[in-house]
UniProtKB/TrEMBL annotation, chain A:
The gene is mrdA. This is Peptidoglycan D,D-transpeptidase MrdA. Catalyzes cross-linking of the peptidoglycan cell wall. It comes from Aromatoleum buckelii. One of its GO terms (molecular function) is serine-type D-Ala-D-Ala carboxypeptidase activity. It is an enzyme of class 3 (hydrolase).
From TrEMBL, chain B:
The chain crosses the membrane at residues 21-40, 46-64, 71-89, 162-179, 184-202, 284-305, 317-344, 350-371. It holds the Pfam family FTSW_RODA_SPOVE. Its EC number is 2.4.99.28. It catalyses: [GlcNAc-(1->4)-Mur2Ac(oyl-L-Ala-gamma-D-Glu-L-Lys-D-Ala-D-Ala)](n)-di-trans,octa-cis-undecaprenyl diphosphate + beta-D-GlcNAc-(1->4)-Mur2Ac(oyl-L-Ala-gamma-D-Glu-L-Lys-D-Ala-D-Ala)-di-trans,octa-cis-undecaprenyl diphosphate = [GlcNAc-(1->4)-Mur2Ac(oyl-L-Ala-gamma-D-Glu-L-Lys-D-Ala-D-Ala)](n+1)-di-trans,octa-cis-undecaprenyl diphosphate + di-trans,octa-cis-undecaprenyl diphosphate + H(+). This is Peptidoglycan glycosyltransferase MrdB. It comes from Aromatoleum buckelii. The gene is rodA.
């Protein structure tokens, strides 16, 4: 390495290195000069011809987007052709003047102008930007006759996306919208730029987003001769575009309609799954929105209305909102008891109406208790005391360890985007969730709340429906899916989305049967009996009530609590009991007791699914009010809990 | 300084004294190219180019007025601040085009990796100055570490182009400080063999699904497109094909100002930024390109002369490194546009549209002027 040198030697060496650097620079520039000479002199003729040929331009042919069909072939998303009036900003001297002049020929309202401004900001100068979409024939004729006055303005035939069912199933189907800068960056990142040359719409949510690659298709290329002004005069060759694949869903749009209608004006969510395959039959989130609003760029007023509404219509409650499961958690707890051997089916406990733990009393709903309660009875009458004790015996690690494989607290992997994880509470979760050491500690009393589905645990309706499907199909955990077939429109080849059992749980059939029998009796003689009275089939179910607001020390009376603070109403159900083809979870936000508002919705959906008939009478919201006062009220009995 | 009476003439003389006429003349030629080409490629940007060049020349003038010692005293805070900002970018930065490069500081968005292009050579020059007379292996190891940290932070954004430029800027200081040829030659050999392997086995390596481990997917595409641009004429190869057509069709004398068909039929992508050289070559031909090359060569020559005559170790290293940065920008940009280097997103120095790069480069010119002036002062 370097030895001691005099400053002069140092300087000398530095100057030699500068000389080396200079020589390198000179050589590199020589290389460039040689390259320029090669391109501009040696191969000039060739490139000159190529540049002339470049008057032969490559024009992308945008593929037609695939359609979305329900399980019976009913169209849920399709395309239709319409004319748009488009302006190429770089070819127009004064945009405002041009638009004013155009508005004398075709209707251009303030909304069109605002949308144009927004799109203009997001587009490049030489791309044409639509000022009006869906021109009618008279408007097209009027413009074409005056086209000479408007250089840089053109009428284009374009395909538009249409969702014929409007608000129905919009959270599943999603919508497309114009490609914005962020989408553009994602496309570039995927290395898909060429395929999107010419496309101006892209899936933004739901299936339109998650199956974007299948739906979009492959862009074609047309070689055209362009004149000096860049306008195409003759087509030379053509590689046609490949239409995107169609999606055929497992979803039944008629069942979906029944489900959404059953909610009436109430907020909530419903997920119905075929337990044999994991295929989603219906997935509703109420209120919903009209996806057609988004296709041409949503107006600010519409957007604000959707986004600022206290009902949050854009939120997909079925997969993103997590709620405490309430008593619907009890069948799963019962299964944990049997599987771990902490209880046998026949073992009964005495319920005095409360459970004492660490000097506190955890209350049952029934004053004085249910008497001697075994596992079957505990589900049918929804006995809290049984589960307080059980939770204490299992311990929080035992509960979390059993529930995790059922999919509680982890994403199910459904093929629509935006799924939430939910919360499966455990001491480890609490340590990660909170910062202060005193908050990080797990308390025994918290385990007891978890036992009846209150406390920290929170699951999405999808997770609950999928866990129920696992109980009724013999312990197979499926990855739920909405798409059944991806249909290649060119070859007609149908690629099936295979039912994907993620795992088989080692639960004894006898244990599953014990829990299922109890759930069937819930609908015969228990908390679900009223909703399922007179059903010509046998169904299993379980009510649940998720506490929204803790009323410390006072009795919960639905009428006295403001609507938004009322409990959420849950119902999980499956049918037919012998060989289930549907398993569902219903949640009605602020619906009060589960039997009151959620169970009738489940009944209507199962009726339609099995019998093909709608219950004509709408659910009577007050029908169960009297029961609710007297009957199980899981959330509000922990008066002694902190 | 003696008390001087206010006089506009004297003020003017004082104002232009720090300006080196040769460097400024060359800068004027290059900016002249910038305005001429912008008028052809993207006339609506002339106004903002005017603003950018105004700010850039002001930055140059400010840097030229400061003494090299003052500039070097900024090295450590600039470097440390830059590294902190880069960490902040990796943690909270805004993502754009798949890379997190920008930091939103409320009023405006800044790109800390740009700061590093100046801070890096300043820092290393300052460091070697501190260790002057004791520069051994240990000093080179420390310098290497000072270089590696910001380069790694920029690389994970990911921004291969800028990280290579910052790495080059730092490497030039280390090279001029006297890093042994025994270390330089093997690295150079490995690079040449590596590039040779990619060119030789390009077909196999560019198959889809082949994971290149160290490079991201988009970087792989860039290299593969260079090897065979015709593979994907609508997509990634489009830029290079169109720009070589533009250059080649320009011929010896070019098609004439604003007469380029490639430029005006919108076949040329990014024609006001990275690909502006193709506009030049199409409209002004080989002649215009060679005049540009000559202008850059003169700029480099002036920079090397200033470096060779600089009064101290730090100023020598700084001047040499800045000059080599100019060379790197110019060579990489013209190389990629003419299809002998991969497209890495390096602007043509002083000519491509882009305010930050122009200001950074003019700061570099200002530093050279400051060093040149300190030599004059030292002597006289």
């Amino acid at each position: 390495m370097t030895e001691f040198r005099t400053p002069d030697e140092e300087l000398g060496r530095f100057r030699r290195r500068v000389l080396v650097a200079g020589i390198v620079a000179l050589v590199c520039f020589g290389l460039l000069a040689a390259r320029f000479y090669y391109l501009q002199v040696v191969r000039h003729e060739y490139f000159h011809t190529r540049a002339e040929d470049n008057r032969i331009g490559l024009v992308p042919i945008v593929p037609t987007r695939g359609a979305i069909l329900d399980r019976n072939g009913v169209t849920l998303a399709r395309n239709f052709a319409a004319y748009t009036l488009e302006i190429t900003p770089s070819q127009v001297a004064d945009l405002d003047e041009t638009i004013d002049a155009l508005s004398e020929i075709v209707t251009i309202d303030a909304r069109d102008r605002r949308r144009f401004r927004k799109l203009l900001e997001e587009s490049r100068n030489f791309e044409s930007v639509p000022i009006r979409t869906r021109l009618d024939d008279a408007e097209v004729a009027r413009f074409v006759a005056r086209r000479y006055r408007f250089p840089g303005v053109e009428v284009q035939a374009r395909l538009f996306r249409d969702y014929p069912h409007g608000e129905v199933a919009s959270h599943v189907i999603g919508y497309i919208g114009r490609i914005n800068l962020r989408d553009q960056e994602r496309i570039e990142e995927r290395g898909d730029t060429a395929n999107y040359r010419g496309s101006d719409h892209i899936g933004k949510s739901g299936l339109e987003l998650s199956y974007e690659a299948e739906l979009h298709g492959v862009t074609g290329v047309e070689q055209v001769e362009v004149n000096a002004g860049g306008r195409a005069v003759r087509v030379i060759s053509r590689t046609p575009a490949t239409t995107g694949s169609d999606l055929e869903l497992t979803l039944d749009i008629e069942l979906q309609k029944v489900a959404e209608a059953a909610f009436g004006g109430r907020r909530g969510a419903l997920v119905a799954i075929d337990p044999r395959t994991g295929g989603v039959l219906a997935l509703a989130s109420k209120p919903t929105f009209d996806p057609n609003l988004f296709v041409d760029g949503i107006s600010t007023a519409d957007w604000n209305e959707l986004n600022d509404s206290p009902d949050h219509p854009l939120l997909n409650r079925a997969i993103f909102s997590a709620y405490p499961p309430g008593s619907t958690f009890k069948p799963f707890m019962a299964l944990a008891a049997l599987t771990t051997g902490k209880r046998t089916a026949n073992q009964a406990i005495a319920d005095p109406g409360y459970f004492s733990f660490a000097g506190r009393r955890f209350m049952d709903d029934k004053v004085g208790g249910h008497g001697m309660v075994d596992l079957h009875e505990s589900i049918v009458v929804s006995c809290n005391t049984y589960y307080y004790q059980l939770a204490n015996d299992l311990g929080i690690e035992g509960i979390a360890g059993f529930m995790a494989p059922l999919g509680f607290g982890s994403r199910t992997g459904i093929d629509i985007p935006g799924e939430a994880e939910g919360v499966l509470p455990s001491p480890a979760w609490k340590r990660g969730r909170f910062k202060k050491p005193e908050q990080q500690r797990w308390y025994g009393g918290e385990t007891i709340s978890v036992g009846i589905g209150q406390g920290y645990n929170a699951y999405t309706p999808l997770q609950l429906a999928n866990a129920l499907a696992t109980i009724v199909n013999g312990g197979k955990v499926f990855r739920p899916h909405v798409v059944r077939h991806v249909i290649d429109t060119a070859s007609g080849e149908r690629r099936a989305v295979q039912p994907e059992p993620i795992r088989q749980l080692a639960i004894k059939p006898a244990h599953l049967a014990a829990v299922r029998d109890a759930m069937v009796d819930v609908n015969k003689s228990g908390t679900g009996a009223r909703a399922f009275a007179g059903a010509p089939y046998s169904a299993g179910g379980k009510t649940g009530t998720a506490q929204v607001y803790s009323l410390k020390g006072s009795k919960y009376v639905a009428g006295r609590v403001r609507e938004r603070l009322r409990d959420h109403s849950w119902f999980i159900a499956y049918a037919p009991a012998e060989n289930p083809t549907i398993a569902l979870a219903v949640l009605v936000e602020n619906g009060g007791f589960g039997a009151q508002s959620a169970a009738p919705i489940a009944r209507q959906v199962i009726d339609y699914h099995l019998l093909g008939a709608r219950l004509e009478a709408p659910a009577d919201e007050d029908a169960g009010a009297a029961d609710a006062e007297a009957d199980s009220h899981a959330g509000h009995d922990e008066e002694a809990t902190p | 300084m003696t008390e001087q009476r206010f006089s506009p003439l004297r003020l003017l003389v004082a104002a232009i004294r720090p300006i080196d006429p040769i460097l400024f003349g060359l800068l004027a030629v290059l900016l002249g190219y910038a305005f001429g080409l912008m008028h052809s490629a993207s006339p609506e940007r002339i106004a903002s180019l005017l603003v950018n060049s105004g700010v850039a020349v002001a930055a140059m003038w400010l840097a030229a007025r400061l003494s090299p010692q003052r500039l070097l005293s900024l090295a450590l805070p600039l470097y440390a601040g830059g590294v902190l900002l880069l960490v902040a970018v990796d943690l909270f930065g805004e993502t754009s085009k798949g890379a997190t490069r920008w930091l939103d500081i409320g009023i405006t968005r800044i790109q800390p990796s740009e700061i590093m292009k100046i801070a890096m050579p300043l820092m290393l020059a300052w460091y070697f100055q501190q260790r002057e007379g004791h520069i051994r292996l240990r000093e080179f190891v420390v310098a290497g570490a000072l270089l590696a940290v910001p380069v790694a932070l920029i690389l994970i954004q990911p921004d291969l182009g800028t990280s290579l430029l910052v790495a080059a800027a730092g490497f030039y200081v280390i090279f001029f400080a006297g890093l042994s040829w025994k270390l330089i030659v093997p690295v150079a050999l490995v690079s040449i063999v590596g590039i040779g392997a990619i060119v030789g086995f390009g077909d196999q390596l560019c198959q889809p699904g082949v994971d290149w481990q160290v490079l991201r997917e988009y970087q792989k595409h860039r290299v593969c497109t260079l090897l065979d641009p015709t593979q994907d004429p609508l997509g990634r190869g489009f830029h290079i094909i169109q720009s070589t057509i533009a250059i080649g069709s320009g011929g010896v004398l070019g098609k004439g100002w604003t007469e380029g068909t490639q430029t005006h039929l919108a076949f040329l992508p990014e024609r006001h930024t990275d690909f502006i050289f193709s506009v030049l070559a199409e409209e002004f031909g080989l002649l215009g390109a060679l005049v540009l090359l000559a202008s850059y060569l003169l700029l480099l020559l002036r920079g090397f002369v200033i470096a060779a005559q600089a009064p101290s170790l730090a100023t020598r290293l700084l001047a040499g490194s800045i000059t080599m940065i100019f060379f790197t920008y110019a060579f990489v940009n013209m190389g990629m546009v003419s299809g002998i280097l991969p497209v890495v997103g390096v602007p043509l120095p002083f000519i491509s549209y882009g305010g930050t790069a122009l200001v950074t480069l003019c700061l570099g010119v200002g530093i050279l002027m400051s060093i040149q002036r300190s030599r004059v002062l030292a002597r006289g």
